[in-house]
Design a protein that fits this description.
The structure holds two protein chains of two kinds.
Chain A: E1 2-6, H1 10-19, E2 25-30, E3 34-40, E4 46-53, E5 59-62, E6 66-71, H2 72-79, E7 87-92, E8 98-104, E9 111-117, E10 126-127, E11 135-140, H3 141-152, E12 157-163, E13 166-173, E14 176-183, E15 196-199, E16 203-208, H4 209-215, E17 224-229, E18 235-241, E19 245-251
Antiparallel strand pairs in A: 1-5, 1-7, 2-3, 2-6, 3-4, 4-19, 7-8, 8-9, 11-15, 11-17, 12-13, 12-16, 13-14, 17-18, 18-19
Chain B: E1 12-13
The chains are: A mainly beta, B mainly beta.
Chain lengths: 257, 14
């Protein structure tokens, strides 16, 4: 028996909007720790890891570890039917091949049940070891989203270079080139507007902008994004989900031309 | 494109 009640149901709506275009089908894993997911895109270039900790739910009942295969497009369709202020409860019985989403309006005057078919998914799980990254950039998520969008109108790839001067995002395409430098800036009034760079050695990596733009669909989940870079590792693009956990995207680099 | 690495070159399947 599984029953997860999330008062801030909009979080789950935002999570699905952030990942449904990257991954078609995925297993959601429920355990005492929380509600989690790890899935790769079909080309094995990008991976999404989601954790919503059990403490973040108003009610969290998970009698035994359960893996539920869902089509994320269909799940997103169902969650779109929930209001932004609705409380969302997920329910599943042991051995059932369906999951039920219950939506309650804040005033309790509208209660909806949506039952979705589960599916068997042969998912590949990757072990992701803890790593020391050469550079960690923390910046406003809206700024990062803007940069990825702007650069993708010029080129297909972005070179992210971190030095002690700042973080540089560069692209080149048929019409020309673009370079955007964000300097460390931690003197702003609001912490969510700061750009903070922690660096042990300079790093420069090239990535496909198509994936970066897909990751920025998580922007509504957090005002801050963290980029963790090492010269010999995939980049980690992390959006923290307040009080609950995180959504992390891993992206393999391109070989520099 | 063919100069794109994959995650399987970095992380092990478990």
């Amino acid at each position: 028996m599984l029953e997860l009640r999330l008062v801030q149901g909009s979080l789950l709506k935002k999570v699905l909007e952030a990942i449904k275009d990257l991954v078609n089908d995925a297993n959601f894993d429920c355990s005492a720790t929380g509600f989690s997911l790890q899935a790769m895109d079909s080309s094995h270039v990008a991976l999404v890891a989601l954790l919503l900790r059990s403490e973040g739910f108003e009610h969290y009942r998970c009698d035994r570890n359960l893996s539920m295969g869902m089509n994320l497009g269909n799940m997103a369709k169902m969650l779109k039917c929930a209001g932004n202020d609705d409380i969302i409860t997920l329910k599943a019985d042991d051995g059932s091949d369906t999951v039920t989403f219950m939506f309650e309006s804040p005033t309790q005057d509208k209660i909806s049940d949506f039952e979705m078919k589960l599916m068997d998914i042969d998912s590949e799980h990757l072990g992701i070891p803890e790593a020391e990254y050469h550079a960690i950039v923390r910046m406003p998520s809206s700024e990062f989203g803007r940069i990825c969008k702007d650069l993708s109108s010029i080129g297909d790839t972005v070179v992210i270079s971190v030095t002690k001067e700042g973080v540089k995002f560069s692209t080149r395409g048929d019409i020309g080139t673009a370079n955007i430098v964000c300097r460390q800036n931690n003197t702003v009034d609001k912490p969510e507007e700061a750009t903070i760079i922690e660096m042990t050695e300079p790093v420069s990596l090239t990535f496909a902008l198509r994936y970066m733009n897909s990751f920025t669909k998580a922007t509504p989940l957090s005002s801050i994004v963290t980029l963790s870079l090492s010269s010999d590792l995939p980049v980690v693009v992390e959006y923290k989900i307040a009080e609950m956990g995180y959504i992390r995207f891993y992206l393999a680099p391109k070989i520099e031309e | 494109s063919n100069n794109q690495k994959t995650l399987l070159g970095f992380f092990q399947k478990v």
